[in-house]
Amino acid sequence: xxxxxxxxxxxxxxxxxxxxxxxxxxxxxxxxxxxxxxxxxxxxxxxxxxxxxxxxxxxxxxxxxxxxxxxxxxxxxxxxxxxxxxxxxxxxxxxxxxxxxxxxxxxxxxxxxxxxxxxxxxxxxxxxxxxxxxxxxxxxxxxxxxxxxxxxxxxxxxxxxxxxxxxxxxxxxxxxxxxxxxxxxxxxxxxxxxxxxxxxxxxxxxxxxxxxxxxxxxxxxxxxxxxxxxxxxxxxxxxxxxxxxxxxxxxxxxxxxxxxxxxxxxxxxxxxxxxxxxxxxxxxxxxxxxxxxxxxxxxxxxxxxxxxxxxxxxxxxxxxxxxxxxxxxxxxxxxxxxxxxxxxxxxxxxxxxxxxxxxxxxxxxxxxxxxxxxxxxxxxxxxxxxxxxxxxxxxxxxxxxxxxxxxxxxxxxxxxxxxxxxxxxxxxxxxxxxxxxxxxxxxxxxxxxxxxxxxxxxxxxxxxxxxxxxxxxxxxxxxxxxxxxxxxxxxxxxxxxxxxxxxxxxxxxxxxxxxxxxxxxxxxxxxxxxxxxxxxxxxxxxxxxxxxxxxxxxxxxxxxxxxxxxxxxxxxxxxxxxxxxxxxxxxxxx
Length: 590
Prior knowledge:
Blueprint: H1 2-18, E1 32-38, H2 56-63, E2 65-68, E3 71-72, H3 77-86, H4 90-93, H5 123-127, E4 133-139, E5 157-161, E6 183-185, E7 188-189, H6 198-212, E8 219-224, H7 236-239, H8 250-263, H9 288-321, E9 328-334, H10 347-355, H11 375-382, H12 395-398, E10 402-405, E11 413-415, E12 419-420, H13 424-432, H14 449-453, E13 466-470, E14 473-478, E15 481-485, E16 495-499, H15 515-532, H16 543-585
Parallel strand pairs: 1-8, 1-9, 2-11, 3-12, 4-5, 4-8
Antiparallel strand pairs: 2-10, 5-6, 6-7, 9-10, 13-14, 14-15, 15-16
């Protein structure tokens, strides 16, 4: 089936070369847009940013466009996606955090409904009236209740996963929070093909939609890849390329990336590197077999990136063959930093895996049935030169790659100005000639067009902050300074101040030395939190504990009848045993 699909794509490309007028777009001057959203990629994961994975197709887009070095997102997937698609701060979209870690105190509160709330318009809904066809494939994670799917928010065609992740080889869930993998096509539950691989399918389906919709119209194509979210899974032949790449462990990788960042000029040459947390394991403390296993998991992570890039290359070649490439603006970025979750330190998760056909072994790693993860130590290493990873407001959680290329974007430019995830939608809308204002919730992001055109060297002045908050993990960046607060389990909920320009690794807390700066930035954060409707997390909040509790409640709701039956059977057994004991102990009459 894969071979047939590719053959058909090649035939379509050949026909387009013979008769390019067949796909001439009638809306002159309006560019096409392709958003390629990677899941959980670190700042340096892509080859062009110094990573080990081969990503030549994305690297080519970077060389033909603008590569951002100070782009910020949120530390969790759904809030980032809501902001990217709307240009609005996550608390005003309704997706302040993800449902998996939502504390009970926040359930149903404004901004915390875990779906796009009334008046929140997506870039797709804003582009439709301008004659755009709007297409979406891949991860959605912004709600699947009535009125919450892509088809309800401006997308003409969509094949969407409304979950934080899923298996990449099969139509099944990857964690106990979900009973299954909730895929929907155009708003209706949908099944996956038998030869499914996530990155391939997401691109195949988008190519199908591009061919099935009115080819005379410009398009928005939003592809939400599952790479490199857990479980990391990739074709064995690609994984084999990286089998020795990470054999010297996570400490060595972290230092290599830190030195590479200096070599590429991504950080100052005298920038320090934050140490691993005391709770993190030293590579040398692992036995040889465990070292091989973790190195293999990291190899799959790199292979998953390369596999995704290969399919991105197929999409690019399809657009070229159709005569659409030169008029297409590409945006490539990640929703947050690398995933730290371990799959081998919780007996409940391991038991669930066993019953759902997963294994954690090195044999067949990354292939069907393998549940791969890189864990907190390799996530910390991948996040270099930043500190920590996904979930947290440190640089490792919110500082990610971002690339733009296409008409209106200068070629071969490295952009060091600050930008953030809410800037994407206003940028695309300005490029399309959309009205700046709408009747819905006002955008909080800013268009990057002045930056792209060279009419300004910054869209945020030195006194204008960028602020982010998800589940109490917070950051505010203003000029060269940053304050950040990280919750449990890897933080202590205390605010710290860093000179982020000279200390991007967040190694030296300046709050005691610069109380004036600290006070001013805390006041700016309080102002942001008040305007956006940020709710404080409960005292002692720990996202991992909340995830465990929410998962247990979901399982109880879904499987209450099993638990009830088990209790009834257990009571009956105890009662029967008690009766037998009584009969056995009853005195026998003479």
